Amino acid sequence: MRQKPEAMCTTVLIIANAAVFFIMLLIGDPEDTYFMMNHGAMYEPAIVEGQEYYRIFTSMFLHFGITHLLNNMVMLGALGWNLELETGKVKFLIIYFGSGITGNLLSLFINMSTGENVVSAGASGAVFGLMGALFYVVIANRGRIGRLSGRGMIFMILLSLYFGLTSSEVNNEAHIGGLICGFILAAVLYRRKRTV
């Protein structure tokens, strides 16, 4: 009997993000900026002056409230499932974490150049990376994989960027950095499956 393909890494990432959120909920208030800053969120002075570079990574698992978590996890589930089955686990993880870290670094660089000290957190930089990578994969497969089409991906990207750019308290730099990085990493790592 043939087994259905599984996106194990996507599932583990969703469980990890949810677990971190509920642990944070038990010990404090994830919607409180100071609480999040004290528990690993992105904060430029802490990273640059305090040399707390781990925040570039830990902030990817922190979310400002249940709505923030759910929005990111729904997108992670939908995008991650499709991408992981196409790229395999290792390449998927490289794209996910590479995009998330790159998005956070771009956000950090822009905050430093503008002199803004912003507390930010969330998996959205990495999730946008999956979106960018999946867009490349669709292009590489002549505009379609499964139910996903090139036009559908363009619409999703534009809509996601529009909502980010027209909303307050959204780290658009991390989104854009993640999106571009995901596309580039997929272009480097992904090879189209040959059909027999």
UniProtKB/TrEMBL annotation:
Name under which the protein is recorded: Rhomboid family intramembrane serine protease
Transmembrane segment boundaries: 7-27, 60-81, 93-112, 118-139, 151-168, 174-190
The UniProt record lists the keyword Signal: no
Pfam families, alphabetized: Rhomboid
Subcellular location, record wording: Membrane
Main location: membrane
Family recorded in the similarity comment: Belongs to the peptidase S54 family.
One of the GO biological process terms: proteolysis
Span of domain Peptidase S54 rhomboid: 51-191
Keyword Transmembrane listed: yes
Signal peptide extent: none
